[in-house]
Amino acid sequence: MQDAGCRVFVPAPCIPYPASFLTAMTTITPPATIRVALVGNPNTGKSTLFTALAGVRQRVGNYPGVTVEKKTGHLRHAGQRFELIDLPGTYSLAPRSPDEMVTVDVLLGRRDNAEPPDVVLSIVDASNLERNLFLVSQVLSLGVPTVVALNMTDLARDRQVEINVDALAQRLGVPVVEIQANRRIGIDSLKQALAQAACRSAPSSRSSGGLAPKHHNPFPDIFQQHARELSQWLNDRQTETLPHFLIERLLLDGDGYLEGELLNGAATEGAAKLRAARESLAAAGCPTPAVEALARYDWVARVLDGVARRPDDHQPTTSDRIDAVLTHKLWGTFVFAATMAVLFSSIFIFAVPLMDVIDGAVGSLAGLVKTAMPEGALRSLAVDGVIGGVGAVVIFLPQILILFLFIALLEDCGYMARAAFLMDRLMAGVGLSGKSFIPLLSSFACAVPGIMATRVIENRRDRLATILIAPLMSCSARLPVYVILIGAFVPAERYLGGVLGLQGLVLFAMYAVGAVVAIGVAWLLKKTLLRGETPPFVLELPSYKMPSLRTVSYRMAERGWAFLARAGTVIFAVTVVIWALAYYPRSQERVAAGIAAERAELAGDAAALADFNDPQNLDHLTASLHQRYSLLGRAGQWIEPAVRPLGWDWRIGCAAIASFPAREVVMGVLGVIYHLGPEVDVGAEVDQSRLQERLRAARWDDTGQPVYNLPVALSIMVFFALCAQCAATLAVIRRETNSWRWPVFTFTYMTTLAYLGALVTYQVGIHVFS
Length: 770
Hints:
two-stranded antiparallel sheet, 36 helices, alpha/beta
């Protein structure tokens, strides 16, 4: 900048390290637990480093009131205990929303009533220092003891980037440690640097409410003068003393978020004062917020002058040559489709043996308990409620683990960013970005990990829109419903010489209907509730590297445990509730009367009566009558007027109600209703051919006409394709959004869509096929 009133600070000449560091620091006794906050740009290896430091000693949650993930871990080194806080990856400490404010609040000690971290660990990509040091400059302005981890030094050497690490530490005034997080190189040295940094404090910064020493503040004098005046004016009017860093951010805030966050009761007068200060800065040649980029990048250039050198002519790297194929419109799309086909197929192919083992184990356990306990409510609760509920959750664990294994491998090697780049144009058509594609693809296996995978989407509106449409993807739990009904009521006709089959086309249509509706819902959400411009898709393509098996294993185990702990408990609890509704009340008199009525109707048919009196058939009929007279059965009969326009009777309504907590229970409920077995076991397989026969034979109670036909089957499938019948999914939406508002909204809009879709399907179908 040329204006004399807006000079950018030039760093002081180098003083031999560590003297420059020690003269500004005072040795203190380290705290019992050293709190270390990890900060870094995306794709700098921050999560890999966190895993290398914390190992399995980590916990994942959400910060109160926001959707940002809170990941903490612990480690011990040389007798010292460390608490690690993995903050979201960010390019800048410029908050524009409550989610983005989390990182700043944690670093300043303004969240959860906690003190600021004792040390900030700033992870930078050694091959891209110019961009990474922008964030480092902001971190240093906080005045918190800092250690810089120079990661990916091997990639920097491959690109012929030369860095004088000692000189860089002298310029920054903080320790700089070379590491390779994926190979755990330099980790011990980094731990030692963190312990030493915690033994030192910066009095000048602590006493100034967060204002760092001068050589860490690159802003011109006129900007600093306005910041001091604004700080004094605000602190005279508020009980809370705002850190100087936040005052600077308020002055730079171009989106108005911080004005509402920090001005409180002085909003009107404060807005006027801010406007006057910004006009004064603009007149002096320091317009906000551009002055920050100019000042900090000028500071970065001066810090790196003579410290880092790279070749004058750019030589194509291995990553460049690979990207020439993988980001190509034609070949890249072909490779992407093949990769996704392998990923998608693997979820089913490789998971089946493990799922069979789990299913067999659950069935054997249920058999043992059934044998050991006398018949009654307690045995039914243990077998159908507890074991069945646990089985319904655990049986999907192999799919979850395989899905996250592939995702972790693709992310760690650098390919996932290329996939998002390829799909951005398609997703942008409905107001989303390429980062929404992988979570939606994951939701075809299960919406729970798909929703959890939306954490890679930085834009809050895009992330929320993706979460709200993810349950519309037909997950694996819907497949049994499709298979049973298509096999029973869709003709097995084939076309094009047998290449295409009608049943296969209908199955594809069921998967397609959810995706098509999701596109429409996403477009509508982005035009109404989540209105906003589609954000430009700016994505850094990280260099390719060999995945770290340790990191991949930790991520896979972390997500698997999260699925069991957060989603499994909900399914378990709801399954027990459904068991109770299907079991009580037990009216032996009404059941006996029902059996007597059925026997009387068959009095003139000796063969049918003999079959009726078979003990196994009597057991099935008894269970079915108990179901009819239970609270769940009564609910089905109560809603029959509402579902009759869909072509459904009370039995289908009963099965639909039972399946709202988890779609997996619908086959078991239909099995009981149609006399296939006494247990509503969501983990057991129901004999498909017998169930299909019973469905074809089902009759309306009042007319005696068949209940099921092709329009009814299509109506049921469309309902299941669009309805939010999964308590685990709703629970994960609640967790990811930190509000019950969005799961309630999701349940409401999906149920409404499902009802209308089923209604239209049946009403059109009876006219077309009549």
